[in-house]
Amino acid sequence: MVRLAQDFSMRVPLVDGHGNFGSIDGDSAAAMRYTEARLDKAAMELLRDLDKETVDFQPNYDESLQEPKVLPARFPNLLVNGSNGIAVGMATNIPPHNLGETIDAACMVLDNPEVTTEELMTVLPGPDFPTGGIIMGRKGIKDAYETGRGSLTVRAKCEIVEGKNGKSSIVVKEIPYQVNRKRLLEKLGELVRDKKLPEISNIHDAADRHGIDIIIELKQNSMPQVVLNKLFKSTQLQTGFGVNMLALVNGVPKVLSLKDTLVHYVNHQRDVILRRTRYDLARAEERAHILEGLVIALDNIDEVIKIIRASDTDKQASDELMSRFGLSKRQCDAILEMKLRRLTGLEREKIESELQELREKIEYYKRVLEDDGLVRSIIKEEMMEIKKRFGTPRRTEITGATKDIDVEDLVPDENVVITMTQTGYIKRMPVSLYRQQKRGG
Asked: Do 194 and 283 fall into the same domain?
């Protein structure tokens, strides 16, 4: 439950926690006696319509209660918040995505079942991690979306700030997903102490409630981009994320593509809407049946009262009403329980108005059950409502190209002089140093 409340772990947190629920620095949550929790508003959308027989139920572990086999899930939570876990002989690692983009992709599948991965990626370009960062390249994303497996390179979002006297700073604004910020700081400090990054003069933790900034101060005339490349190479400012979109489909583990995942979700939503509509239709027809009996009784109120007064028991009155007006047992029970105040003209109007509304609803529910296009439009409308309520801007950037950091990336970009000595040695030195030696350069 703690993880469900962490906004650095969940793209859309499902638990509204009060108290210490841990931090991105790796601090553990407080003991449960010090915390309070309730379902977040977004989590309620996963449970919406659960009371309308939209999903199957099964006994819980001790058969004392019934629990749903699967939730109605009015938004695709598997993609939005991702999933990771290890079981016997298999593992899953699904990255989180932006809620609004995921809903747009689901709507695209609804509109066109033959949609391609390239078309889906126009609205869902890639994962969207809670901690932001930068995904390097799109090939890994496309592989994951087409085959269910792929490898992503995620970098921290850093800014180079030019200071005075040739001193610069690197400000780390966002870190890769699931990176422990405290351990990252410890690793940076270790590299500085071991003189593996002599260009760094100081590391400052500037985190506050508005951000997680880490300020890396560089020595005079250091090359910020070269230092940054070294940091990417030797710290968790750059990490890999192996995508493995393994999920249970009707109880069977399957590796799914992005389209497969969305198709299964859309089919589930279609089933939820149909079952909800059947439930609403049955309740509307049941209520309309009762109201029709009340209308018949009000139209013949004098005779109804006469029959009731002449009867010795409720059963005798009920049998007589059923025989005289062709009413059902439930209608007769409702008539016998009717209060005298319902005999007024105003109450009669209310009954007739409610009956008319129910007849319109019944007609609408029957249209929904017969028209798949109407079902699709309902799914889209309800998902777009969720997008409007809970959607947020994308946090993770995606760059168009990537390459591994090699030795050349760690060499400063500067003008040099190549000299050959009389003894055959070749030397390389910066132009600035060569000029200081006053050798005619």
From this structure: no
